[in-house]
Write a sequence for this structure.
């Protein structure tokens, strides 16, 4: 993680130059430099992605549900969604003490120059430097020239009801403002008359879970699992009007224990970690999912036609069939 390393090292030098007592870190990521920084100042870390939060906790770091209090310095590691990142900047500025500043660092290949250009819209005193194919930027709290733009950033990053889907969502979530083709296909081929206890695995904002719950009255309990706490916040809003009992789980489905002895599962498994393609991620999630089913339990997933999930599923299931294939996607149904 070159951006995290550069940001933490730069903050360490900054803390030694000035009297910095308290540092907040938005979208904190594990790195050896974090431990060094913790020896210089009090840290408060926020991370909404479960796998990152678990890795931070393994380092002995505490991850807070949100940044609170005042800070001399706030570090921000950008997300892959620019609106989300700019919203974090707008939310962080009011938390700074007098003379405080925000520092950001992004990889060049992930839009560092574009981010810097947008930050210059609110301050002509933004400074920065490049190193290890990254761009590090410093934004003083007392150098904001365009507060109206900050308000726009804050508003655009908030949870909202999206007209196309009718669901609450927010920038940064998967396919946040439109219905992706894979989920649309799975919506057409959801399990018929599911009963008992089921799970929407990698649920996002709860699109599939809500559709299943609205179409079936015989579901005893519905588990929603996602690695993104912000996605689960949206899912709770979207399932609020359903009569089915639900439980949300903030879990890394690739490595943490999932609900067990399930009657059925629906899943649109991811194959990216942040900005990086990771085919093995989907395989690990599906292996975990199969183990969560009771004997005779059913799983139905949507996947890109090129992803080779069938062989893995056949190792864990008694039967498997392709329900349909269309527009580069396939629906796979299996029974344990």
């Amino acid at each position: 993680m070159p951006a995290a390393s550069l940001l933490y090292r730069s903050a360490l030098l900054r803390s030694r130059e000035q009297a910095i007592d308290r540092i907040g870190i938005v979208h904190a990521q594990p790195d050896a430099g974090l431990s060094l920084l913790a020896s210089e100042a009090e840290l408060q870390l926020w991370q909404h992605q479960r796998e990152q939060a678990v890795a931070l906790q393994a380092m002995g770091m505490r991850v807070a549900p949100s940044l609170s209090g005042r800070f001399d310095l706030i570090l921000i590691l950008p997300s892959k969604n620019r609106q989300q990142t700019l919203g974090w900047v707008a939310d962080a500025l009011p938390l700074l003490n007098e003379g405080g500043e925000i520092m950001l660092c992004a990889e060049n290949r992930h839009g560092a120059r574009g981010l810097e250009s947008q930050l210059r819209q609110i301050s002509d005193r933004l400074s920065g430097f490049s190193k290890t194919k990254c761009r590090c930027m410093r934004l003083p709290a007392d150098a904001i020239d365009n507060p109206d733009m900050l308000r726009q950033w804050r508003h655009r990053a908030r949870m909202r009801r999206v007209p196309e889907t009718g669901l609450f969502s927010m920038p940064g979530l998967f396919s946040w403002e439109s219905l992706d083709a894979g989920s649309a296909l799975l919506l057409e081929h959801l399990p018929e008359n599911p009963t008992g206890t089921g799970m929407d695995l990698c649920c996002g904002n709860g699109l599939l879970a809500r559709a299943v719950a609205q179409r079936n009255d015989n579901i005893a309990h519905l588990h929603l699992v996602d690695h993104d706490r912000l996605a689960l916040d949206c899912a709770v809003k979207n399932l609020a009007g359903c009569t089915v009992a639900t439980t949300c789980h903030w879990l890394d489905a690739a490595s943490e224990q999932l609900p067990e002895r399930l009657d059925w599962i629906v899943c649109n498994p991811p194959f990216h970690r942040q900005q990086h393609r990771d085919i093995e991620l989907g395989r690990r999630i599906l292996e975990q999912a199969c183990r969560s089913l009771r004997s005779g339990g059913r799983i139905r997933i949507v996947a890109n036609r090129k992803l080779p999930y069938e062989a893995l599923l056949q190792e864990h299931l008694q039967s498997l069939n392709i329900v349909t294939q269309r527009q580069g996607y396939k629906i796979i149904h299996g029974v344990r």
Q: What stands out?
A: The chain has a mean pLDDT of 95. Residues 2-17 form the longest helix (16 residues). The longest strand covers residues 96-107. The two ends are 39 Å apart (CA to CA).
